[in-house]
Structures are given as C-alpha cells and as structure tokens.
Design a protein that fits this description.
Keywords: Cell membrane, Chemotaxis, Flagellar rotation, Membrane. It is a peripheral membrane protein. Pfam families: FliMN_C. One of its GO terms (molecular function) is cytoskeletal motor activity. This is Flagellar motor switch protein FliN. The chain has 88 residues and is mainly beta. The protein has one domain: Surface presentation of antigens (SPOA) (Roll), CATH 2.30.330.10. Strands 1-2-3-4 form a four-stranded antiparallel sheet, with no helix packed on it. A hairpin with a 2-residue loop joins strand 2 and strand 3. 1% of the residues are buried.
C-alpha cells in the first residue's frame, strides 16, 4: 500500500510584494521595514510547490504567527499533474 509519509511539499505564503532597487535592499539593516502593496486585512496567497493553491488570513496564535485558510482554489484539469498508470 502506498504511503504519503515521504512526500515533501514546499509551502510558501506571500504577504505582499514591493519593488526596490538592489542597492536600497543591500543598505537595509536589522529591523528595517519594507512597505508592501497590501492592506492589513487583505488575503495572503498560499503556494504549494510554487503553485497557487489557496488564500488565507494572517492570525496570531499567542506569540506565533499562523495562516488561516479562507479559500481553496480549484485547479483546472490542464494545471493538474498527469496521472501515471497503475494503482494508487
């Protein structure tokens, strides 16, 4: 029987984006703040292996930061990986 224990998925959450010259980025020090193109209540984008799969909201869990999934995105058949022949 197949197991999913050894499948690795890289999860990324994008809070927002910002454009700046490299020289400005290199001059930033610890504690520097980067302005993003989003508001506090905007959804974040959730990626699995560089594919957008969901949207969510940032939540505080005590002293930790988490993401609450608010929408799971449907993927068109063209975006789904091809299934190999054989039993699952």
């Amino acid at each position: 029987m197949a197991t999913f224990d050894d499948i690795k998925v890289d999860i990324s959450v994008v809070l927002g984006t910002s454009d700046m010259p490299v020289h400005q980025l290199l001059r930033m020090g610890r504690g520097a703040v980067i302005d993003l193109d989003v508001r506090e209540d905007d959804d974040v984008r959730i990626y699995a292996n560089n594919t957008l799969v969901a949207r969510g909201q940032v939540v505080l869990l005590g002293e930790r930061v988490g993401v609450s999934v608010t929408e799971v995105l449907n993927r068109s058949p063209e975006m789904r990986p091809m299934r190999t022949e054989g039993p699952l």
